[in-house]
Amino acid sequence: MSEEQEKPVNPEETLHTSVPVTGMYKDWFLDYASYVILERAVPAIEDGLKPVQRRILHAMKEMDDGRFNKVANIIGQSMQYHPHGDASIGDAIVNIGQKELLIETQGNWGDVRTGDRAAAARYIEARLSKFALEVVFNAQTTEWQLSYDGRKREPVTLPVKFPLLLAQGVEGIAVGLSTKILPHNFIELIEGSIEILKGNKTNVLPDFITGGLADFSEYNEGLRGGKVKLRARIEEEDSKTLLIKEIPYGTTTDSLIDSILKANDKGKIKIKKVVDNTAKDVEIAIQLAPGVSPDVTIDALYAFTDCEVSISPNACVIIKDSPVFLTVNDILEYNTKQTKALLKRELEIRKAELLEKLLFSSLEKIFIENRIYRDIEECTTWDAVLEAIDKGLEPYKPDFYREIVQDDLIRLTEIKIKRISKFDAFKADELMRRLQEELKEVNHNLRNLTEYSINYYQNLLEKYGKGRERKTEIRTFDTIQANVVAANNAKLYVNRADGFVGYGLKKDEFVCDCSDLDDIIVIRKDGICMVSKIQEKNFMGKDILHVAVFRKGDERMVYNYIYLDGITGRAMVKRFQVLAVTRDKEYNLTKGTKGSKTLYLTANANGEAEIVTIFLTQGAKARVKVFDFDFASIEIKGRGAGGNILTRHPVRKIQLKMEGVSTLGGLNIYYDPTVGRLNTDERGKLIGNFLGEDKILVCYKSGDYELTSFELTNRYQADDVVLIEKFDQDKVLSAVYFDGASKTYYIKRFQIETTTLNKKFNFISDHKQSYLKLISSEKQPQVSAILIKGKEEEQVDFDLDMLIDVKGWKALGNKLSTYQVKEVSLIAPKKSDKKSDDSEEEAVEDESDDQLDVGTTIDLSPKKDDEEQLGLF
Question: In the annotation, is 123 catalytic?
Answer without folding.
Answer: yes
